[in-house]
Specification:
mainly alpha, rod-shaped, 128 residues
Amino acid sequence: MSGWKELLTKQELERAGYIQALAKQDISRNQGARRLKVSLTYLSKLIDKYGIHWPVRYGQGVGINKVPGGVAEYIKLADKGYSKADAARELDVSFNTVCAVAKNNKIKFVDGRTKGGLRSPKISVTSR
């Protein structure tokens, strides 16, 4: 049985070395998981298990990078009184992108919903 344990230990070391080599290639964990043909969750568990330094890349910068002025453009529109929906149309990004950028950078947009008024004319029904 000691030969079996040695084999398992050797495989663990080889696996850790291979994952470490991928981490040094400056690719995302998602790309690494694709190369290994495993799920991202499984790769993350192995990274934690072997104590490999492979920083997580967050994708929330994408919406900011789509806009030439970056976060400053979002702040300008918020200061001008734009709602999130108006800002999304103006910057040609999705509403969810504007929401994420606003949340991550603590930007306050105007509430675009109507308050206390009707959104459409009231239809009155007369009784017969």
